[in-house]
Design brief:
Layout lengths: L1 H16 L6 H19 L6 H29 L4 H18 L1
Helix pairs in contact: 1-2, 1-3
């Protein structure tokens, strides 16, 4: 479940700190993904405080690391809109992985 929450939180952090804009379709699909993660978490009988805290730390560090890596890649290559293409690919990949 932690893996599924990384993309929505990356979008949230990029929106808050980098002022990046995302389409309504992407926001809606990520909202539905989070609802699914929430339902799965609530119905999980092994959910505990330590595991939840560690999952949140994993999500935060992975998101920040991914954002920093993407920014470095863009600055090194001088590529514009790379994040938007990657964002679209990650959303499609996430949707495909969740169906499997």
């Amino acid at each position: 479940m932690t893996k599924l929450a990384i993309i929505p939180f990356t979008v949230l952090l990029e929106t808050l700190f980098l002022k990046k804009q995302f389409s309504q379709k992407i926001k809606l699909s990520l909202f539905l993904l989070l609802v699914g993660v929430g339902i799965a978490s609530v119905t999980d009988l092994q959910l505990n405080l330590v595991g939840t805290v560690l999952s949140l730390l994993a999500i935060i560090t992975t998101c920040v690391g991914q954002i920093i890596k993407d920014k470095e890649t863009v600055s090194l290559l001088g590529v514009k809109n790379m994040g938007q293409e990657k964002e679209s690919h990650e959303v499609k990949k996430s949707a495909k992985d969740s169906l499997v």
